[in-house]
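Fill in residues.
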């Protein structure tokens, strides 16, 4: 039996079970079996609506662990994880029987722990085109909106009023940081990482 068997027998489900095995240093935490080098494992695949309207992914043939030890992946769908932020619909969590690892299947334009999309892309991979403006304005509602607002001299509020759910200035700074890392221009990125990003 794989390390996920204990999580499946837990009455609260796999997202609430923590299992530690010292010999292999495998941890089940949240929805994933992780190792130190595999934190945030994910793949990107288009999602299409099923007849009931819920988007479902095109299932990948291989996971991020494919060929890691000379063995091919043996994948199965584990469960769908609800998302309260982007993309706004449940995303698939898959597991590999061969490598005893889990990973998330994200739709194009989205990334792990992202609260907003990275790019103006629909769940099926098609580019979203904004009505007026085009160009940089297409990136409204994405990670790069913070930079667009700053370019127009609009700093996000430092504090929020009661009940105000708008993003604030610390979020704007975090998004600058994330965008700089994605584009490979962050000053703290190693030279090799900067070249890989461009």
């Amino acid at each position: 039996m794989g390390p996920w068997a204990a999580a499946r027998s837990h009455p609260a489900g796999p997202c609430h079970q923590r299992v530690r095995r010292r010999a292999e240093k495998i941890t089940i935490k949240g929805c994933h079996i992780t190792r130190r080098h595999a934190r945030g494992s994910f793949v990107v695949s288009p999602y299409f609506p099923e007849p009931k309207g819920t988007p479902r992914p095109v299932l990948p043939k291989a996971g991020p662990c494919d060929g890691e030890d000379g063995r091919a992946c043996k994948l199965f769908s584990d469960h769908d994880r609800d998302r309260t932020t982007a993309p706004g619909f449940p995303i698939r969590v898959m597991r590999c029987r061969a490598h005893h690892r889990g990973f998330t299947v994200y739709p194009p334009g989205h990334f792990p722990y992202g609260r907003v999309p990275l790019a103006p892309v629909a769940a099926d991979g098609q580019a979203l085109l904004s009505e007026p403006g085009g160009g940089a304005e297409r990136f409204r509602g994405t990670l790069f909106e913070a930079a667009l607002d700053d370019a127009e001299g609009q700093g996000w509020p430092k504090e929020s009023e009661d009940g105000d759910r708008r993003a604030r200035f610390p979020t704007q700074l975090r998004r600058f940081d994330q965008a700089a890392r994605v584009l490979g221009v962050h000053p703290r990125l190693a030279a090799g990482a900067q070249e890989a990003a461009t």
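Residues 1-38 have pLDDT under 50 and may be disordered.
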